[in-house]
Each structure stands twice: as structure tokens, then as C-alpha cells.
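Chapter summary example.
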Amino acid sequence: MVESGYKKLAAPCGLYCGVCVDYLEYGSCHGCHCGCESCDSSEHHAACDIYICCVNEKGLDSCGNCEEFPCSKLIQFCFSPIWFHHLPVIENLRRQKAIGAEKWEEEQKEFWSNEWYLKRWLWLQKECETRLKRFQEKT
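The structure predicted for these 139 residues follows.
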């Protein structure tokens, strides 16, 4: 069952699940706070160091609620040279703390309602997937 409520699309790390290609295009994920165990979020939960630390180990719903925020793990996640789309996570978490996750999700939904941004963002995610597959085939 997909969890309802405002935290559904606010990932613990500060990413907005509402613009993930798995959520929008493939329909294979319901967002990081989903507990249905049948969508891609289960795979993310098992592999994501941020999720494991924040949710599984510390019992928090957001890194922004951690007393160590921002920790080295989150900073490295944010500034990863591989996953540059992680760049806004620390500011996203600060914004959530300032205005609340529900209002932050509304802001994100409004921002990403711009089709020009959204189409290019989805293209970029798909291009990254394609390049990753090619890289994996070569190694």
C-alpha cells in the first residue's frame, strides 16, 4: 500500500521523488516513503546509504531532522560528481525545515509543472541511464 500524506514525495535525503523517472515515466516507484514492498522504493531502501542511516538506523523521516545535519555522508551525497542532480538536497532539507515538508512539496510540484524544465529533466535522467548501461556493458 502506498503511504498517503505530504511526506510521500519528500525523500529523506532531500530529493523530490515527484520528478524521478521511475515515479513519473515508468510508474515503478511510489516515492521513498512508500512501504508497499512491491515498487522500486524497496530496492532503493536496501541500497541507499542515506536511507539506511536516516530511516533504518536513526528512525527519522528526514536527514533535516538529524542532530548531525548536514553530516559528511549527506555532504558527499550532495556533491557527488556522478549524481549531480543531488546538488540541491541540503538546501531542500533546510527549506523543508523552514516552511514544512507539505508546503515544500507544493513548491516543488509548482516548480516542476513547467513542462520545459520537466521534459529536459526526464531526458537527462534517461540519458544517464543509457550511459550507465553502456558503461556497465564495457566493464
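To summarize the output: The chain has a mean pLDDT of 88.
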